[in-house]
Design brief:
It is built from 12 helices and 20 strands. The protein is α/β, with parallel strands linked by helices and 424 residues long. The protein has 2 domains: 160 residues, Lyase, Ornithine Decarboxylase, Chain A, domain 1, CATH 2.40.37; 171 residues, Alanine racemase (TIM Barrel). Helix 2 packs parallel to helix 9, helix 5 packs across helix 6 and helix 8 packs parallel to helix 9. The protein binds ligand LLP. The site of ligand LLP has 22 residues, from helix 10 and helix 11.
Length: 424
């Protein structure tokens, strides 16, 4: 579901023509739809029925504070993986007791910060981390709730680079070690083990691997309880797919909810989820302007003013993003193969190869759809290209939620060493 549609041949974000935003703010620009964000959050929550759930939006998908705040206003917590993300979530109005801190390599500084602000839970990924958290918390006179992240040896997801649940991936610990750490944590004064967490991958459509992982988790809960240990929470991670290609059916959320209910519903635990992509992907588009068209080697190229630094997913994961002209031409349905590329000096800076597309002339606008997740969040200034502007739309209103980076902001903080004259 997304609130980006054509009206009289013009592509709108909710009730705002994208062309108006591009005209006012310039391109490339990310445009987010508040209604789409809210819709996805509500749909996810509804799919869980009466289960006791705490939904922690995975901030990494789209870190803009306006996005986090939109979801926080609906009661969402935050799944975070760095001190920076915790700080963003707090700034955006997520209370500390709504924040889960996860990640495979948390530094002592990050852990101390998380404990000091009183995050809801830290997901532990190694024995060393457990000991460090326990020590830091004890020094601060605190008791930190922790979950142990298991690696269920079940892989899933749209691409090898985003699979996280296989035994040879870096994430989590084996069930054997998880059970050992749980017992250990139970005896340490600085921590209180409250449950287990799992996350096996991203862009998952088929729930079979998730069901397998959750079942292993449920079995583990019973083993822990049999030892007299208390388990009150299960963090079931994120990973649900977003619909990138409207011709491919997306995940059936009601079926997901039913599966969760069936596999872990009887355990009398609070359930946590960490959806990122499923909430944010279709809530954003990247609007760019065509710079030039050219033919090379028998192929037609369209060079646009967005590049791999703005949206790296196609280059990194061969990801598909639908591309729509912001203004439909009269011969919109007359398609011809086109390579859509950015201006960066790498052949990898390619958004689509030989994609059947309507003709787009230099100067016209093109929207990259479903780029609200892992779009701006993964952007860089490669080729010294400023970070794009970000805009949020709500009904017929819109506002810049992050202005385009200036050149001063991009390199003004760099200094020359003394031996080069130390001139600013
Ligand atoms: N929880 C944990 C522990 C995670 O590692 C992730 C994503 C999530 C939740 C959220 O997953 P989601 O619901 O968004 O699938 N940059 C890649 C995706 C990387 C996902 C990393 N972990 C992409 O653009 O496809």
């Amino acid at each position: 579901m997304r609130f980006f549609d054509y009206r009289d041949g013009a592509l709108y974000a909710e009730d705002v023509p994208l062309a108006d935003i591009a005209e006012a703010v310039g391109t490339p620009v990310y445009v987010y739809s508040r209604a789409t964000l809210e819709h996805h959050y509500r749909v996810f929550k509804a799919a869980m029925g009466d289960l006791p759930v705490h939904i922690c939006y995975a901030v990494k998908a789209n870190t803009n504070r306006a996005v986090i705040a939109t979801l926080a206003a609906l009661g969402a917590g935050a799944d975070t993986v760095s001190e920076g993300e915790i700080r963003r979530a707090l700034h955006a109005g997520v209370p500390p007791e709504g924040i889960v801190f996860a990640g495979v390599g948390k530094t002592d500084q990050e852990l101390a910060y998380a404990i000091s602000v009183g995050v809801r839970q830290i997901n532990i990924e190694s024995a060393s981390e457990l000991n460090r958290i326990a020590k830091l918390a004890e020094q601060m006179g605190k008791v930190q709730h922790v979950c142990i992240r298991v690696n269920p040896d079940v892989g899933a997801g749209g691409h090898a680079k985003i699979t996280t649940g296989k035994a040879d991936n870096k994430f989590g610990v084996s069930f054997e070690l998880a059970e050992e750490l749980y017992g250990l944590a139970d005896g340490l004064p600085g921590v209180e083990p409250v449950g287990l967490s799992v996350h096996i991958g991203s862009q998952i459509i088929d729930f079979a691997p998730m069901e397998k992982a959750y079942q292993k988790l449920a079995d583990c809960v019973l083993r822990l309880r049999a030892r007299g240990l208390k388990v009150t929470r299960l963090d079931l991670g994120g990973g649900l797919a977003a619909t990138y290609d409207e011709t491919v059916k997306g995940p059936d959320l009601a079926a997901y909810g039913a599966m969760v209910q069936r596999v872990v519903g009887h355990l009398d635990v609070e359930l946590e989820f960490e959806p990122g992509r499923m909430i944010a992907a279709n809530a954003g588009v990247l609007v760019s302007r065509a710079i030039v068209t050219k033919d090379n080697g028998g192929k037609s190229f369209l060079v646009v003013d967005a590049a791999m630094n703005d949206l790296i997913r196609p280059a990194l994961y061969e990801a598909y993003h639908q591309m729509l002209p912001v203004k439909k031409a009269d011969d919109h349905d007359n398609l011809a193969p086109l390579d859509v590329v950015g201006p960066v000096c790498e052949t990898g800076d390619t958004f689509a190869e030989q994609r059947p597309m309507p003709a787009i002339a230099a100067g016209e606008l093109l929207a990259f759809m479903s780029t609200g997740a892992y779009g701006f969040a993964m952007a860089s200034t490669y080729n010294s290209r400023p970070l794009a502007a970000e805009v949020m739309v709500s009904g017929d209103q819109w506002q810049v939620v992050r202005p385009r980076q200036t050149y001063e902001e991009m390199f003004g903080m760099e200094t020359l060493p003394d031996w080069l004259g130390n001139k600013t």
